[in-house]
Design a protein that fits this description.
single chain, alpha/beta, Rossmann fold, 2 domains, 6-stranded mixed sheet, 12 strands, about 45% helix, disordered N terminus, His_PPase_superfam
């Protein structure tokens, strides 16, 4: 097992062995006023933890409220003096919490509990329900930037199911602002228990993150992820290297040069990048340390290039340089083992897809941290693993994802989530 993957596995095992039953299940409970980026943060964190292999699920209390009470509740439903509304909202919060705990008892590890949870009374109710079942960490999102709040409010009116049946934008806006005022009247910042406070971190600069009573491997990884993530929009372009001589010959691994078609693709890619990123002077080009990615990047000018060993192709160990037919003939047991479980199969003296995912975590963190566009020129297995993160695809699908040569996948990251475009430059 590679050193990094071994360290991750050892830390996870230690948590399981030495933590209490309650500590082995983790509830990340969002706290914050409406339009502060709670759901965006919950979705990003859920995606990250799933990609690392932790059984994670996002529980949105607003969905429970709409299912039980309908989507057309006016701002009056959220008034602090509306006792009936308070009881109804606490009831759906309790239902969501019960579902999350039941899911944990069935094998779930991390529940992301997404709601305003804006009063101590609500949070103490959740803490009481969690006793003996899971450890709670409150994650409070605080935003004081009026421009960001106004943008989030507009997105809320345009995208929230609460206003799907409201044809009048201004009427929806007025109702939501009244709802926001109702929450502001009773809002109590988190001071109890274990918590993480994200203060003005949406833009990715100038904010701060406060933590209290946070310990353990997984909570530490969550803090590290949150420190480095933001919602500023920027594109990430993923592409395989141009066709190599080993691609032509059907051989795995190796470090060969490009074929004629591969060299042609490198030039087409350079033209594409020049046009697509002509106004992005701070963009960077990332490659692996293998020459087929470095050669693919060579015609690209005007941008700094960084080589990452973590972006090297999956290590095929003793099978390096062989065709799959040769592996089938010479090592039939290995061939069948790989065929049965490509995700967990580890080449003799090589890696598995899970090993690749573990070594790619620093790459993901750095991609989350970047504010400028990044072009990643890498390899099939590596790009499958990276793409699965952005697309929030189950790990079991990673080994069979389509990742064709001479194609660019553009991932657009921003406040509305992750969007994808594909450009096929050559057949």
């Amino acid at each position: 097992m590679p050193e990094a993957a071994g360290a991750v596995a050892a830390a996870a095992v230690a948590d399981r062995l030495h933590g209490s039953k309650e500590d082995r299940k983790l509830a990340i409970v969002l706290v914050g006023l409406p339009a502060r980026g709670k759901t965006f943060t919950a979705v990003k964190l859920t995606r990250y933890l799933r990609w690392l292999g932790h059984e994670t699920k996002h529980f949105n209390v607003g969905k429970y409220r709409r299912l039980k009470h309908g989507a057309n509740q006016s701002a009056d439903f959220f008034r602090p003096d509306n006792q009936e509304g308070i009881e109804a909202r606490n009831e759906v919060a309790a239902l969501a919490m019960e579902d999350m705990i039941d899911w944990m008892h069935g094998g779930g590890q991390v529940g992301i509990f997404d709601a305003t949870n804006s009063t101590r009374k609500r949070r103490y109710m959740l803490m009481k329900m969690a006793e003996g079942n899971c450890k709670i960490i409150f994650l409070e999102t605080i935003c004081n930037d009026r421009n960001i709040i106004e943008r989030n409010v507009r997105l809320k009116i345009q995208q929230s199911p609460d206003y799907a049946d409201q044809p009048d934008y201004e009427a929806g806006l007025q109702d939501f602002l009244e709802r926001l005022t109702n929450y502001e009247k009773v809002y109590e910042p988190v001071q109890e228990g274990s918590y993480i406070k994200m203060i003005d971190m949406v833009k990715g600069e100038g904010g701060q993150l406060q933590v209290n009573n946070i310990s353990g491997y997984l909570p530490g990884r969550i803090v590290f992820f949150l420190v480095n993530s933001h919602l500023a929009p920027r594109p990430i372009l993923l592409t395989r290297h141009g066709e190599s001589l080993h691609n032509v010959r059907g051989r795995v691994g190796g470090d060969t040069v490009l074929s004629e078609d591969g060299e042609l693709y490198s030039k087409k890619l350079a033209n594409f990048i020049e046009k697509r990123l002509k106004n992005e002077k701070t963009a960077t080009i990332w490659t692996s340390t293998l020459q087929r990615t470095i050669l693919t990047a060579t015609p690209i000018v005007g941008f700094p290039k960084i080589q990452w060993r973590a972006l090297d192709e999956i290590n095929s160990g003793v099978c390096d340089g062989m065709t799959y037919e040769e592996i089938k003939k010479i090592m039939p047991e290995e061939y069948e083992s790989r065929k049965k479980d490509k995700l967990r199969y580890r080449y003799p003296r090589g890696e598995s897809y899970l090993d690749v995912i573990q070594r790619l975590e620093p790459v993901i963190i750095e991609l989350e941290r970047q504010r400028a566009p990044v072009v990643v020129i890498s390899h099939q297995a590596v790009l499958r693993a990276l793409y699965s993160y952005f697309a929030d695809r189950p790990l079991r699908e990673v080994p069979d994802m389509e990742m064709p040569l001479h194609t660019i996948i553009e991932i657009q990251m921003g406040v509305t989530g992750v969007e994808e475009k594909r450009y096929k430059l050559m057949d």
